Amino acid sequence: DTGVSQDPRHKITKRGQNVTFRCDPISEHNRLYWYRQTLGQGPEFLTYFQNEAQLEKSRLLSDRFSAERPKGSFSTLEIQRTEQGDSAMYLCASSGDHHTGSNQPQHFGDGTRLSIL
Amino acid sequence: QKEVEQDPGPLSVPEGAIVSLNCTYSNSAFQYFMWYRQYSRKGPELLMYTYSSGNKEDGRFTAQVDKSSKYISLFIRDSQPSDSATYLCAINQGAQKLVFGQGTRLTINP
Fold first, then answer.
1. Which residue spans within A28-103 are E strands per DSSP?
2. Cα separation, A53 vs B21, whole angstroms
3. Which residues from A are below 8 Å from B49, CB to CB?
4. How far is Cα of residue A33 from the mean position of the Cα atoms in its chain?
5. What is the pLDDT of residue A97?
6. How far is the C-alpha of B91 from the C-alpha of A8, rounded, in Å?
């Protein structure tokens, strides 16, 4: 049973550069979530997908951020023109079938740690 | 006011002690309550998941929900050094984004 996989685990880049992270959810999960976590804080919601549809975006997701899930499987999160304040852990989570209307718990990957120089 | 409040600690207890971790929340529409454990440089790991008031037990862990008081707790019995981690409460309204507390950093001293 493979869990949520994120790549890379750590990304160091200079301010102003673009970065892209990848998330592979648990295979049978149709919902995929992105969160951001800064030191000493709980994760904060960024956006989520049901299959390939992006259903909600947080106001934290400025126009420099874009997320995709083109085939309803893996997802990418891109940050353009990175800023110092983007330094954080970016976490991906997935959850199972919601067609019945029931809530399913979210399972997290180990995140991508972004450091902006 | 944050939607979910959690004392960040740090909390340090001797091995074998009973640990009590707590969160309060403000939105009565919240229906689902979770506790996650997070080790350093790792993602949150789901420990407990419940949707009703009352207690839920799993091994040394007990989750307690009091919807009337908007208060949730996690109890750890016979605490072990391997329980040293940050514990995050998380709440949602169902099939939606999780709202997390700040996390409580716990250390169990041998």
1. 31-37, 44-50, 53-57, 65-68, 75-79, 88-95
2. 37
3. 105
4. 6
5. 66
6. 28
B45 and chain A: CB distance < 8 Å anywhere? yes
What residue has token string 């950093």? B105
- Tell me the per-residue pLDDT of B10-46, one tens digit each, with 9 for 90 and over: 999 999 999 999 999 998 888 899 999 999 999 999 9
Residues of B with CB below 8 A from A56's CB?
96-97
- Whether A45 and B43 lie within 8 Å, measured CB to CB: no
User: Is-contact A109 A23, C-beta < 8 A?
Assistant: yes
Per-position b or e across A34-62, b if 16+ CB within 10 A of its CB:
bbbbeeebbbbbbbbbbeeebeeebeebe
With contact defined as beta carbons under 8 Å apart, do B79 and B13 qualify?
yes
Residue A72, CA distances (Å) to A15, A54, A76, A108 in order: 31, 10, 11, 17
* Interacting residues of A39 by C-beta distance below 8 A, sequence separation 6+: none
- Inter-chain CB proximity A45 and B88 less than 8 Å: no
